[in-house]
Amino acid sequence: MDVEPIEAIVGISLIALALLAVIMVRPNPPSASPALRELSARSVASTVAYVYVWRYAYGELNSSEAQTALQRWLTTISEDSGLGIRVELNLSNGTSVLQTSWSFEVGDLSVGDVFVVQKPASVFLAPNGTAAGEIIFGRDPYGMEVPTGVDPLNLTVAFYDLRSRQPLDVGNVSINAQYTCSTTCPCLNATICTLIDPDLSGSAQESGFLYIFDQRKSLLTCETPNGSTVALCPVSGPIDVTASYSGETTVSATGTGTLLEIPMAVSWLSVSPRNASVGEVVNADLGQTADFSVYSLIDGKVILQSSSVTSVSIDLSDPFGVLPGIMVVEADAADSTYRNAFFVRPYILFVRVEMGGVSP
Amino acid sequence: MRKAVVFMASMIPVIIFGAYALSAVAAQSARSTKALESELILVSRKLFESPGDWSATPPDIGLALEDPSGSIWSFVVDPEKLANLSSLSYEEVKNLLGLEEVDVRISFYRLNATLSDLASGAPASFDADPSLVLGSKITKGLSAAGYVYVYLAGDADLGFTTLQEGFYRVLIEVFWG
Fold first, then answer.
1. Partner residues linked to A133 by β-bridges
2. What's the ipTM?
3. Chain A contact present for B133, CB below 8 A
4. What pLDDT digit, counting tens, does each position of A300-340 carry?
5. Domains held by chain B: number
6. Per CATH, the architecture of A139-266 is what?
7. Contact, A132 vs A251, CB < 8 A?
8. Residue A346: CB partners within 8 Å, gap ≥ 6?
9. Nearest CA in chain B to A39
10. Which residues of A touch B9 (CB under 8 A)?
11. Which of A101, A309, A338, B73 has the highest Cβ tally under 10 A?
12. B35 close to A (CB below 8 A)
């Protein structure tokens, strides 16, 4: 076949242009080199740590929402990058690391190289000096039986830093309670009414950086002209309580309990230990059947619920079953609702990311 | 004679192509992909793993969030710092990143779901087009590219656009050519 000169020139020019284009075209897919994959893994670890600390531990997400959000985020990254990802969240109290407390895996890690990154994140926000206090009443309502007596004013007071949610340094806490008392004098002997005193005051005892008050108000009664015995002080109604803390700062807390003529408590909700670390188990025992819930004093976020039991064991090993700061244990029994409190010391979250496989 | 002339004329584009190819390969041998990857990682460390110091002169242009208690959150972007970065010229950014012969381009691809959406189990994916591109508009020559995944910790008002708080995939590209 005889090729015309013009055709030859055009053909060779086109070939040359094609080859030229090959050199000039820059390949744009991200490199799958080890260093760059490690970079991606580090970024995944950091974003997971941020979501845990700022959006779960100190944020608005509850346990279920936080886990779902992280799983969706990791699934999206895996689908986008074509890489397998495994994330483990492990807790540490500063001395030892709990192993494999929570994990999630997506994609295929069985082929290709896998790169592992581990990132610690402190689950603690430094105090900002803004103190607050809150009274946790041991029973709601308290009971009284005439003429037998009145439930002790059993309560726990927490004074804490608003940002860190951790208790303030140990200080002195005084309690002043004002009961509701009779405003009339139905007594055969009117002089008894001069003894009416709504006040109950005293010092609270420190226990694990929380403060316990457990004093009993004497029941003042009298005989009426028709021969019955009636309560003069206290009587059914609100109990106004003020707790005052003096230590690293001064701050007070107020709250209102309720006293009713119902049978007095047979048992109270006990909590041990009050000052807990991750990895420990906090035991709460009421001694009668109740529906238990454990929630943050600060934002009400629930970490545990259990129905129709007499006690609960709160295992602080699960990253999504623990929160930093003061926790309230509430037991809703047939006769009344009982409460107590403990607090979780700051802890460290270790985020371990395995990222690998073969990129598409 | 005619054939010889035609042959020589047809060799001209081949010679031109060959000369260009040789010079390009010769130049590329001076810079390997690994070296560019190192530059890419340095860019990432400087921008996404350092909080910077925007009050200094010249500024240290880190984007990492520093929380109220002083902790540094790498790969969590401070929206104010991102706004500051986007207000700089490309040459300023190149100088502050310490890049001399290398060009850089940073593209932010938004995740089409908020954290609340993810928390409710909604599926999500990254936008096909970047919401923000910073850096060189020209992309040619030897290059390295890598992805990092970041969280923008607040809406960033960049003047010409607003980047919403949320998750982003960031493509970092460095070029030499």
1. A159
2. 0.83
3. no
4. 999 999 999 999 999 999 999 999 999 999 999 999 999 99
5. 2
6. Sandwich (2.60)
7. yes
8. A122, A123, A124, A164, A166, A324
9. B148
10. 5, 9
11. A338
12. no
